[in-house]
Design a protein that fits this description.
By secondary structure, the chain is α/β, with parallel strands linked by helices. It is built from ten helices and six strands; from the N terminus they run H-H-E-H-E-H-E-H-H-E-H-E-H-H-E-H. The protein has a four-stranded parallel sheet with strand order 4-3-5-6, sandwiched between helices.
């Protein structure tokens, strides 16, 4: 038992990434530190560790593929507050949302393909973390594009740079294209709503899983692309609770696909992003 699975996997990612960049740049020429938005090691702790090693230029890599107010934005805002108060000598660069980056899509698709090899799944459900609909409207920089009708997600707009729902739909679309999935064999849903008050993104994962079982689907596959690392929302909410609900309502097997976690190909992708950032820094 390694305690928190999210913390354990995050620290494994940081360790593997440190090993990779050491090979490219030399021991500790580029320093990697892992931190948690909520919990320990905190963002302040991580930045302090970097500062003590003489780091002045920092690449922030929020491990959320899709931008959301409750995740990416809160990380960047908090990090900047900490920098301004405690580490004013540091300069930050942040990695933008990578929901449609070809390398991420490839790693996610390979994870799905490898996990489902030899399994007789009938439908693949992409389950993303839910957010209140008001967050989607609030993040619309055009103040007019978002209609919450699902159609606006597929119409070109600068609002998509910060639209969580669009970025989820685009992730599903790109993975489906990469894996050459047939129309009707995959769909998108949203999990983890924490309140019955207000309207959250739909369809809800728990209701969707139950409906598939009741409608005769015997083997359903589910992947959680809003998470890079497995955590309570994937291991318990999906791996245990959703699996039990699926079987209780007539399903035979819920095939739960792991997150990309600390796969070697994912660590290699993050290492290349560091290379791209480092080259830009050296060119300035």
């Amino acid at each position: 038992d390694d305690g928190s699975p999210l913390l354990d996997i995050t620290l494994r990612q940081a360790s593997a990434l440190q090993t990779k960049v050491d090979q490219s740049y030399g021991i500790n020429k580029v320093v990697v530190a892992g931190a948690m938005r909520y919990g320990n090691p905190s963002i302040h702790f991580g930045l302090d560790a970097l500062a003590k090693k003489g780091v002045t230029e920092v690449l922030l890599l929020p491990l959320y593929p899709q931008f959301a107010m409750a995740t990416t934005e809160t990380i960047l805002v908090l990090a900047e507050e900490i920098r301004a108060k405690h580490f004013p000598h540091m300069e930050f660069t942040s990695l933008p949302a990578f929901y449609d980056h070809p390398d991420y899509i490839r790693v996610l698709s390979n994870t799905i393909q490898e996990s489902l090899k030899g399994k007789n799944w009938e439908h693949l459900l992409f389950s993303y973390h839910g957010v209140p609909e008001r967050h989607i409207r609030k993040s619309d920089i055009t103040k007019s594009h978002c209609k919450m009708d699902c159609k606006c997600c597929f119409e070109d707009s600068p609002a998509h740079a910060y639209c969580y729902r669009h970025q989820c739909e685009k992730t599903t679309q790109n993975v489906a294209a990469y894996l050459e999935l047939k129309e009707g064999t995959y769909s998108t849903s949203f999990q983890s709503r924490v309140s019955i008050l207000g309207s959250w993104l739909k369809p809800y994962t728990d209701k969707t899983v139950e409906a598939f079982a009741k409608n005769g689907t015997k083997e359903l596959a589910i992947v959680t692309p809003a998470f890079i690392s497995d955590c309570l929302e994937t291991l318990e909410e999906i791996g245990m609770e959703a699996a039990e609900d699926f079987e209780d309502n007539g399903g035979k097997k819920l095939h739960v696909i792991p997150c990309v976690n600390d796969r070697e190909d994912w660590v290699n992708v993050m290492s290349r992003w560091i290379d791209e950032w480092a080259l830009k820094e050296m060119a300035q």
